[in-house]
Amino acid sequence: MNIKHRLTVRFVIQLAVSGILVLAAAGLSVQWMLQRFEEIQLSHDFASVGLEKLVESSKLGPDGFVFDPKLLDQVKANQGWLQSLDEEGRVVLSYNTPPDVPKHYDPGELLAYWNRTEPFPYGLYLYIQEKDGKLFTLVYGVKNELELLLEQVKGGASRDESGQLLLPDQAAARLQSLGGYVQWLDASGNEMAAYNKPEQIPRSYTIQDLALRTIYKERYGYGIATSYNKDSKDTWIIALPNQARSNANSSSLLPPETRVMIVGVSAMLAAMLLVFIIMSLWSAHRFGAPMLHMLAWLKALSNKVYEEPADRKGRPRSRNSSGQWRRRYRMYTDVMQSLDQLAKTLHRDETLRLQTQELRETWISGITHDLKTPLSAIKGYAHLLANDGYDWSKEEVCSFSNIMLEKSTHMDTLINDLAMTYRLQSGLFPPETEEVELCSWLTHTLGQAASDPAFGEARISYHPLAEEVVVRTYTPWLSRIVTNLVANAFLHNPADTLLTVSLEWRTDHRHICIIFSDNGSGMDERTLDGLFERYYRGTNTVHASAGSGLGMAISKGLVEALGGHVTAESKLGEGTVIRVVFPAAKRTGGD
What we know:
- Its EC number is 2.7.13.3.
- GO terms for molecular function: ATP binding; phosphoprotein phosphatase activity; phosphorelay sensor kinase activity.
- It comes from Paenibacillus aquistagni.
- It is an enzyme of class 2 (transferase).
- This is histidine kinase.
- By secondary structure, this protein is an alpha+beta fold.
- It folds into four domains: 45-143, Beta-Lactamase; 146-253, 2-Layer Sandwich (Beta-Lactamase); 318-426, Helix Hairpins; 429-588, Histidine kinase-like ATPase, C-terminal domain (Heat Shock Protein 90).
- It is 49% helix and 19% strand.
- The chain has 16 helices and 20 strands.
- The strands form six sheets. A five-stranded mixed β-sheet has the order 14-16-17-19-18, covered by helices on one side.
- Helix 1 (3-44) crosses helix 2 (46-57), helix 1 packs antiparallel against helix 10 and helix 2 (46-57) runs antiparallel to helix 3.
- It starts with a helix and ends with a strand.
- The relative contact order is 0.06.
């Protein structure tokens, strides 16, 4: 799997995890809000909601049915009470039941209290349901303060001479303690008298106002009860503060449902923000840290620092103590390996560049010396010939001229070698080729090289093949190659060195190999590696360096231009073997 696919998979997984966490946060927030809404609804209207939940959540134990403790606590919080009746009207279970509540009900008695045809100090709510083979009858009672106060006010209220409303002492004291008020309205809905009424309560009502205040008591903060006198057409209003509102913070202007919604949505948004922050930090650590590390490595490479940036312990940041990739770097394995390879390549190229620069400087020094030496001789003899104070003989002039000609020829050779190396580097091709029988051609060429006085008493042992070998080549270049290799063998080895030249076929019998093997001093590894490099002058432990340093580079370039290749093997004290391989045009005779 490449880095593109790995990144795609990782980002998909990250987005999926983020989505799951966000959905979980949203789900928890919604669940919390639903629970709070349910609690608010239970506190507002336990009779219609809580009784059903009591039956649904009940469990049958050894002593009968057991109800949810939280719902029973809500009964008590609402200042209500609860009774469970059997089919004969007997109370089986009770909770928070006042002393004035019966322990047994006749069928007609319970219905009379429920329908309010008989006076009863509590408002009753019934819930009947069968569960586990038994018939449940739950009686939920809440003290009906409004109805009691309304009856007391209607039966004993009056107005004094100033028009102030006078209530029975018991009713007045109860209203004061509960924070309620009384209004007496005429047939048009206008207030005739009031008791303990807050300033924000209106003095006049329309049909809609009175209906809305009766239905939506939570909106207006008061529960009200009304009584209309058909004969006098006046209306009594008794109002008490809502129980839930009185227990809540009176300074809050928002309904409890709105507060729950605000808290729930805020918590959900905060959880989502936290998820995104955590995932962002994780992504920065998981994806950003390796990228910053790779950028730091690239910057180090630009400053020619090729080692991977290390941690405080000196280890590469991408590796653990065992040398394995750290988890967050495994995704970028391809990139890290490419950077490592780039660092090695740049290091190698920089090393080669420094070596080449050193070789170039050495060669320039050498070639400058080689050019200055014959030029100094030419200049010196030219001054001698131009000096009028001497009368040179014909023999002396001829000697001076020969020396000047020899030195100028050497300079011309050096310059031609330098030009040849650059022509080969730019892609030189032989001007024309011809078929040559290699065995006899080498016999003649090696004989001429052995007679060259520059090589002293050259000892060359030549071993041709028994068959004729025909190659297509450009003979001036091939002659230059052989001469350079012979010169390299004798100029850089002791005088008694023996050079053995032999021919052999490659295993495919399509290429012929010319082998130049000497028993000289040999070369060390560094010299062998730079043998065919331009500007490189090899040295050994016996002789000083000689030549332009271009001969072997020219030989290698010419061999490759003729379609062949050259290799060298050598060890100090064991001589040198150079193999030149060319494609053969044809062979005759032999096996």
